Amino acid sequence: MSKCEQCIVREFSSLKALNKDELIKMANCKTSYTIKKGENIFEEGETVNGIYCIKDGICKLSKLSANGKDQIVKLVKSGELLGQRSMISDEVTNLSAVALEDMEVCFIPKKEILGFFNENNQFSMNVMKTICGDLRESDDHMVSMAQKSVKERLAETLLYLEDTFGKNEDGSLYIQLSREELAGMIGTATESCIRLLSEFNKTGLIDITGKKITILDRNKLKRMAE
Amino acid sequence: MSKCEQCIVREFSSLKALNKDELIKMANCKTSYTIKKGENIFEEGETVNGIYCIKDGICKLSKLSANGKDQIVKLVKSGELLGQRSMISDEVTNLSAVALEDMEVCFIPKKEILGFFNENNQFSMNVMKTICGDLRESDDHMVSMAQKSVKERLAETLLYLEDTFGKNEDGSLYIQLSREELAGMIGTATESCIRLLSEFNKTGLIDITGKKITILDRNKLKRMAE
DNA sequence: GTCAATGTATGACAAATATCATATTTTAAA
DNA sequence: TTTAAAATATGATATTTGTCATACATTGAC
């Protein structure tokens, strides 16, 4: 069993407030998993009795809408925690979490986390701040959905993907989403998404080579996203 | 100075976890305000150094989008708290709060609230749960914006208004929003909103008499909202 | 390697929604 | 009360976006 002390999740998440003793406690009760690309971590409607620490990989949080389309609400990457909201609310999850690449995650049972809440105020505050940050993002995201055109949202999303997940050595976006997934992020039909990507490609904003997307004109994209 | 002990906000919000001593402390440091319809409680970009308790009235939380339209993110009513997110995040607010009716609010300084966080775990947990609930609502709202048509969202919103703010004796919606505000809630142009209201009126889903809107066929509206 | 399945791409068209113009009604100020 | 301003309503039209059809490309199982 590996220690939690040097874990990337500890370094970047609310867990950085935990002391040595607490980390040892956590290491003793955690369960480690490997999750293959495409597999679920949890599904909409499930009860999540703890928190997942993402050691490696990226996953999507999505919600199936009434018309059968999967809306991607958020992408989560290594160093972050998953499932906090449902665990704290004592509700079933409102979102499904699906791996976009092979992942390494650890599960910490609810009981343990609630113990930390009681003993360690800094940890509580960190979790609170994270959730407040999520809430702000979600509200801003909602306004984008309501007020921006599909083209603006696509421009915004491409920039977000580069800023958040970085580039390969050849300059292309590190994260590779299918067109359907990208459409699911911006909330549009797959065909509309493909059409706009083609347009961006033709007007020199981006380059599309096979599955790889490269942002060529950041400034113009930024202006387009407003 | 009135005591906080019998206040409606204490009854319905996270504050119910506070004990007598804490309530007395709070009563001693609070500031009470009257806010007239149309006035701001705070504006997007301001620093909020505390929490507002809404004793009476309803306000809208909105965000000005790049195209100049005001998107209403949430309505908040008496018994609820306001400004928690920004206070906890230590960030300026991302939303403006404007009174939809005359309001009575109390302001509790941040220092006091942080003290309660340290001393009273149940209070911390309550605040956390509230924010988690807000996050869930916001995510769900975002998916509606992204996936539903304007008609579906209008149906959904009318039902929400009746469920949340109730009816007058004549059966009409208690809360009266202008067409522009209603359009701002569902994220559409004012004219589109007006047109759909007319359509709902003609097809017998609702009745419009002057400013008053009455829901006539809940079930059909529910089916329409999916 | 072959082939089916899936993903990507594009055209044609339909539907939804925004925009602009203008009329009518309501509200509030003088 | 009168009058200007604002809100509501509706038509005409343009634009955006979705849907359906189809073609082509890529992938993975056998």
TrEMBL record, chains A, B:
Coiled coil: none
Annotated HTH crp-type domain residues: 148-219
Any Pfam family matching the protein: cNMP_binding
PROSITE patterns the UniProt entry points to: CNMP_BINDING_3, HTH_CRP_2
Domain Cyclic nucleotide-binding: 14-111
Gene3D superfamilies referenced in this protein's UniProt entry, alphabetically: Jelly Rolls, Winged helix-like DNA-binding domain superfamily/Winged helix DNA-binding domain
Source superkingdom: Bacteria
Entry keywords, A to Z: DNA-binding, Transcription, Transcription regulation
Cytoplasm in keyword set: no
SUPFAM superfamilies the UniProt entry points to: cAMP-binding domain-like, Winged helix' DNA-binding domain
One of the record's GO molecular function terms: DNA binding
Signal sequence residues: none
Gene Ontology CC terms, in alphabetical order: cytosol
Official protein name in the record: Crp/Fnr family transcriptional regulator
